[in-house]
Amino acid sequence: MPVGTGASQGSVLEPARRNMLYDDVLGIELTIDVVVQIQHLLMTQRLLSELRIATRLWETHPLVADLLSELRIATRLWETHPLVAE
C-alpha cells in the first residue's frame, strides 16, 4: 500500500510486521501510525506555507494595507495611554 512518505507495506506473510511500512527515503521501517503522523505534519506544513503566502498577498491589498496601518497607529496610541502603560 503506497504512502506519501515513500513507504510500502510489509510482507503479508509476516504477521508481526503487518502494521509496519518500509520507507525507501529513510531506509527504515515505520509503524503505520508514525507514517500517518508524518503525512499530517507535511500537510500542515504545506497549509501553513500557503496561508503565509495568502496573508502576504492579502496584506498588499490597498484597503487592507490602509486598515493595517491605521490599526498599528491605534495600537501605538493605545499603548501610550496611562492606564495601559502601567
Q: Mean of residue pLDDT?
A: 77
Report how far the terminal alpha carbons are from each other: 61 Å
- Low-confidence stretches are none
**Helix-strand string:** EEEHHH
Spatially, the strands of the biggest sheet line up as: 1-2-3
Total number of helices: 3
Helix % is 55-70%
Q: What is the number of domains?
A: 1
At a glance:
The chain has 86 residues and is an alpha+beta fold.
Report what the structure shows:
The protein has one domain. Strand 2 and strand 3 (28-31) form a beta hairpin. It contains 3 helices and 3 strands. With 86 residues, it is an alpha+beta fold. The protein has helices spanning 32-59, 62-79, 82-85; strands at residues 7-9, 20-23, 28-31. It is elongated and about 65 Å long.
Q: How are the secondary structure elements laid out?
A:
Elements: E1 7-9, E2 20-23, E3 28-31, H1 32-59, H2 62-79, H3 82-85
Antiparallel strand pairs: 1-2, 2-3
